[in-house]
Design brief:
- By secondary structure, the protein is mostly beta strands.
- Helices cover 0% and strands 62% of the residues.
- Strands 2, 4, 5, 6, 9, 10 and 11 form a 7-stranded mixed β-sheet that branches.
- A hairpin with a 2-residue loop joins strand 9 and strand 10.
Length: 119
């Protein structure tokens, strides 16, 4: 019923910046909390940032001060602006959202986008 489509990944040099976007598509749905996760090779999935419908945010300590999560409720889109990137930020980044369809709650995942930071 709802599909999350990510964009913005790529290769960047250490110290550089990238911006990720994730848009929700469907019909007769609403999106509540949205999140960004990442998973690096050989590591567990990590929650990077969270944003509520009212734009309250939370960040992992590893990215605090460098990453900014934001959203546009009218566009059902969440963003992740990543600055001062480090090689340790290299991972597949996934967006995640809590949605409501026909009165029922669901959790959705994006397809993932690769972020590679070179040293």
């Amino acid at each position: 019923q709802v599909q999350l489509v990510e964009s913005g990944g790529g290769l960047v040099q250490a110290g550089g910046s990238l911006g990720l976007s994730c848009a929700a598509f469907g019909s007769s749905f609403s999106i509540n909390v949205m999140r960004w996760y990442r998973q690096a090779p050989g590591k567990q999935r990590e929650l990077v940032a969270t944003i509520t419908r009212g734009a309250n945010t939370n960040y992992a300590d590893s990215v605090k001060g460098r990453f900014t999560i934001s959203r546009d409720n009218a566009k059902n889109t969440v963003y992740l602006q990543m600055n001062s990137l480090e090689p340790e930020d290299t991972a597949v980044y996934y967006c995640n959202a809590d949605g409501v369809v026909r009165g029922l709650s669901y959790n959705y995942w994006g397809q993932g986008t690769q972020v590679t930071v070179s040293s």
